[in-house]
Amino acid sequence: MMVEHTPLFSHLTTGLRRTREILFDRIARLLQQPRVDPQVLEELEEILITADLGMSATQQLLKAVPSGITEPTELLHLLEQQVTSILSVPHGNIPEGHPHVVLALGVNGVGKTTTIGKLAFRAVRQGKRVLLAGADTFRAGAIEQLQVWGRRVGADVITHQAGGDAAAVVFDALQAAQARGMDLLLIDTAGRLPTKKNLMEELKKIRRVIAQHLPGAPHETLLMLDATTGLNAAAQAREFHQAIGITGLIITKLDGTAKGGAVVGIVSELQIPVACVGLGEGIEDLEPFSPSTFASALLSTGA
To answer: Residue 47: what are its φ and ψ, rounded to 5°?
Structure first.
């Protein structure tokens, strides 16, 4: 496959370097065999599972291999096509609204607040008026962190005191966003583990407040997942999706892990599209997700 080496492709290739060392480099050595035979496919299965794709995605990939295939390069090309297909979960229709309301979820430590700051930066750079809501009143320092991001990117921030009612923060932020004519409202939420009943009830309350105040909102509910946790992130996603309903995923810290293949496994299992991927700590290190570009960066011979 011919791949245009755009800056995004190069950025992804660099970010996926550690995963490629586990996945592509081992596959490349395997495919030095003169032909594809059952032993090659058995070793390929082990490589895919080791790279954290998971059993479900691995079986899906291997089932797509036709029995008559013999050329290693043809097999690699087929794998790239199939990874693209698995990752191409259609995005649902995102309802229109002004302001556009995005509810951001994720457990502590996944880089949620930082990612919100990066999303705000992208929107401000596009000329949008952005408001941030600091509804993570549970974690010490979360409000201050969001305020720092607000000043950094040029976005207003609505917060209350630590320990306050998160839903009240959201209500005030919705009123402020409408009164000030904001284009985008990004809502940061608490990140206690999803098995904690109190957190889920708080998030449900926030959703109710949003929907009551602005019908059709939130327009997007994005879950941040830490790539370094591999397939364990799927368990978090299941809990959040069951309780709240997720419209998209943002995979953070993809540059710091050899478990980038888990993105394939998570999407295969949950059938939730990936919206963006985090590829570093810089303010611009958040990229819109392209299934074909990701698959190429993961599996193509291009560097």
So the answer is: -65, -45
In eight-state DSSP terms, residue 51 is T
Inter-CA distances, 206 with 51, 203, 211, 242, 298, Å: 37, 5, 9, 16, 38
Q: Are 259 and 227 in contact (CB under 8 A)?
A: yes
Each of the 303 residues of the chain gets a pLDDT tens digit; together they read: 233 334 556 678 788 888 877 787 788 888 788 888 889 899 999 989 888 898 999 999 999 998 878 888 888 889 999 999 999 999 887 888 899 999 999 998 999 999 999 999 999 999 999 999 999 998 879 999 999 999 999 999 999 988 899 999 999 999 999 999 999 999 999 987 656 788 899 999 999 999 999 999 999 999 999 999 998 898 889 989 998 999 999 999 998 888 888 999 999 999 999 999 998 888 999 989 999 999 988 886 444
Structure tokens at 302: 């291009």
Q: Are 108 and 142 in contact (CB under 8 A)?
A: no
Give me the DSSP letters along 219-258.
SEEEEEEEGGGTTHHHHHHHHHHHHT--SEEEEE-GGG-S
Check: pTM over 0.85? Answer yes or no: yes
Q: Enter the tokens of residue 205.
A: 């309350």
Check the CA dihedral 19-24-26-27 and report its sign. Answer: positive
Contacts of 159 (CB under 8 A, 6+ apart): 133, 134, 143, 146, 147, 169
Structure tokens of 198? 């109190």
